[in-house]
């Protein structure tokens, strides 16, 4: 059974930082792309960033480029999203997700497995 456990959300002031974690289990890691999505109140869920477990290639939404960094800790089977220079518009529930046999997962229609969300609130 594939499980994705997201954690690390919280309340932070604008300009601050948070690191989200997605602990993965039950999958053959090199076959998957892992992504972070977010959903703000009243808005559709959108792709934020993703990474290929096979080759480490990464992708970012334009809105977070230069501020967010995605990475993998293979020893811990965990994907991290380091979020710096946070803005109030980054406030959302953040979800990690997995897509099998691909190196990119940036659209909700591409997701095979979802983790539970973790709330990030950025105050102005």
Model description:
The protein has about 120 residues and is mainly beta. Helix content is about 0%, strand content about 55%. The strands form two sheets. The chain has a six-stranded mixed β-sheet with strand order 2-10-9-4-5-6, with no helix packed on it. A four-stranded antiparallel β-sheet has the order 1-3-8-7, with no helix packed on it. The protein is globular, with a radius of gyration of 13 Å. The mean pLDDT is about 95.
Task: Give a short synopsis of this structure.
By secondary structure, the protein is an all-beta fold.
Distance between the termini: 40 Å
Major sheet details: 6 strands, mixed
Give the spatial strand order of the biggest sheet: 2-10-9-4-5-6
Mean pLDDT: 96
| Helical percentage | under 10%
* Poorly predicted ranges: none
Task: Name the overall outline.
Answer: globular
How many helices? The count is 0
| Rg, nearest Å | 13 Å
Number of strands: 10
Helix-strand layout with pairing:
Elements: E1 3-7, E2 10-13, E3 18-25, E4 32-39, E5 46-52, E6 58-60, E7 68-73, E8 78-83, E9 92-100, E10 113-123
Parallel strand pairs: 2-10
Antiparallel strand pairs: 1-3, 3-8, 4-5, 4-9, 5-6, 7-8, 9-10
Characteristic terms for this protein:
0% helix, mainly beta, 124 residues, four-stranded antiparallel sheet, six-stranded mixed sheet, single chain
């Amino acid at each position: 059974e594939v499980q994705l456990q997201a954690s690390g959300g919280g309340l932070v002031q604008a300009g601050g930082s948070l690191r989200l974690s997605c602990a993965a289990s039950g999958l053959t890691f090199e076959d998957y792309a892992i992504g972070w999505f977010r959903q703000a109140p009243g808005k559709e869920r959108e792709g934020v960033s993703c990474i290929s477990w096979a080759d480490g290639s990464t992708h970012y939404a334009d809105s977070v480029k230069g501020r967010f960094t995605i990475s993998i800790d293979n020893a811990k089977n965990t994907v991290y999203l380091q979020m710096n220079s946070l803005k109030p518009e980054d406030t959302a529930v953040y979800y990690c997700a997995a897509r099998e046999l691909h190196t990119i997962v940036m659209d909700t229609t591409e997701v095979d497995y979802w983790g539970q969300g973790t709330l990030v609130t950025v105050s102005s």
